[in-house]
Specification:
Radius of gyration: 18 Å
Strand content: 15-25%
Helix content: 40-55%
Largest sheet: 10 strands, mixed
Number of helices: 10
Distance between the termini: 42 Å
Order of helices and strands: EHEHEHEEHEEEHEHHEHHH
Oligomer: single chain
């Protein structure tokens, strides 16, 4: 089997890093892919960079929004534009290591019941130097998605950033797109919904790199308005309790909020030590 994989990059004023991101995708060992860049009315050199790379690799497709859709709108536009049977979304400053798609896709092909596959993530600085690692759920292989979803809601997102996930189109079609009610943890919400479809697959290898930056959306929020982040997490708990796929009692909800609060504090310290504004 040689299915088409759509790798989607939502871009907005991404000129500083997007070339490295695109090169990491086009250098994948698995070559049957399309790279879809959806530009959300950038005012810098993003489009010129993408067009230059498109000239030398026909797998690149550039979509330019007529009006600015914002982060959630642009992420959903990426999913709408994807033509592949399998989809990966990667932010315009992150990177994939060469065997990322190959290994994540192999897991999905071997286990067609799996709704989403994920791998460990290297934390990298502005120069691409590894500064740490974000590991997924402690176990590996095929896991019960609802169990992982509940523990993720209580303790931390075991799902991580978009760059570490690959999912079949059918998973996206079943759960719908990113929810605009969650402007910052929109990916966590969608991964939870996908996990609750049934099975997930965890690979304990660092197959992607997440660039740690103070001036990213999450970095700005944690540095400047952690209260907003905490309130969004509270709304996430309320939504998924109401959906009924997972249920947290009052104590578990309290534990979840306390852990979220202290994780935000620790993340802020990590950003101050390891991240610089570009």
């Amino acid at each position: 089997m040689n299915p088409l994989v759509s790798v989607c990059i939502p871009a907005y004023n991404s000129a500083v890093y997007i070339e490295k991101t695109m090169e990491s995708v086009l250098a994948q060992k698995y070559e049957h892919l399309e790279l879809v860049v959806v530009d959300d009315c950038s005012r810098d050199e993003t489009v010129k960079i993408v067009e230059r790379i498109r000239e030398r690799d026909s797998r690149v497709r550039l979509v330019r929004n007529e009006t600015n859709l914002g982060m959630t709108g642009n992420w959903n536009k990426c999913l709408e534009e994807a033509r592949g049977e399998y989809i990966k979304l990667i932010c315009a400053d992150d990177i994939l290591y060469p065997d990322s798609i190959e290994k994540e896709l192999a897991a999905l092909l071997e286990h067609p019941e799996v709704a989403i596959a994920m791998s460990d993530t290297a934390l990298i600085d502005e120069n691409g130097v590894r500064t740490g690692c974000f590991r997924r759920y402690p176990r590996s292989g095929v896991l019960d998605g609802k169990k992982v979803a509940k523990r993720a809601l209580i303790f931390k997102s075991f799902f991580g950033a978009p760059c570490n996930t690959l999912f079949p189109r059918k998973s996206y079609e079943r759960v719908g797109g990113f929810d605009p009610e969650f402007p910052y943890i929109l990916d966590f919400d969608m991964w939870l919904r996908m996990a609750c479809l049934g099975k997930i697959y965890v690979i304990h290898e660092e197959l992607n790199g997440f660039r740690v930056r103070n001036d990213s959306n999450t970095g700005n929020l944690i540095n400047d308005d952690r209260k907003t982040y905490n309130e969004e997490h509270r709304k996430l708990l309320k939504k998924h309790n109401a959906l009924g796929e997972v249920h947290l009692n009052r104590f578990e909800l309290w534990v979840s909020m306390m852990i979220r609060h202290w994780r935000n504090e620790l993340i802020q310290i990590y950003l101050k030590i390891n991240a610089k504004k570009k």
